[in-house]
Design a protein that fits this description.
With about 230 residues, the chain is of the alpha/beta class. It is built from 8 helices and 11 strands.
Length: about 230
Amino acid sequence: MYELGIVKRNIVRADKAAVDKLSLFGVATIHEAMGRVGLMKPYMRPAYNGARMCGTAVTILLQPGDNWMMHVGAEQLQPGDVAVAACTTDNADGFFGDLLATSFKARGAKGLIIDGGVRDVVELEEMGFPVFSKAIHAKGTIKATLGSVNIPVVCAGALVNPGDVVVADVDGIVVVPAAMAQKVADAAEKRESFEGEKRAKFEAGVLGLDLYKMREPLAALGLKYVD
C-alpha cells in the first residue's frame, strides 16, 4: 500500500562515478551483467526515435488522470536525475507534455520514465528531452488529488527506490539499485569487453556452435544431421 501525501526532500543518490560508467553501456548489457533482473515491462517505449537516458531516480506517484504530483516532483529534481512516475492504478492519460518537459529540463533532469501517457511528442523530440512511456495520449489531466514524491514505487513491474540508477534505450529500461551501481557498472564493463572479443570471432567466421561448445551437448540430446 502506497503512502500518500509525502514528499521526501533528502534522498541518497547512487554514486555519480558509477552512474557515469553505467551510462556507457546499453540496457541489455546492464541487465545481463546484473543477473538478468531489473527490467521494466516491454510495453514501455521511447516517445520518439533515439531517446535514451541514464540518471538517478526521483520517484513520483500519480493518481489516475491527475498530474498534480508531476509539478510537486519537479521541485525535487536535481541535475542528473531521471523522473520515474508510477500510477496508483492503470491509466494512460497524457500526464506530461512540453511545458512540464521545459520545467524538468530547467532543473537538469535527464528525462522521464512514466507508466502512463504523454503528449506533445513532436515538441519533446525538438527539445531533445527523452521520455519513455506506456502510451502516447492527447487526453489531458486534472490537478486535484495527492500522490507522493520520493517513495518506493513499482513502475511497469520494476521496483524503483529514490536514488536508484535508471537506464533506458531502444531495447528497454533497467533499474540498478543504488547500492549495487558500482558493482554492476564494473560487471557491465567486463561483459562488454567479452562481447567485443566474441564479435571479432563471429566476424572472422567462427560459428556459435563452436565458440560456445554446443556440438557435444546437442549430440547428447540426439541432434542428428541428415544429408
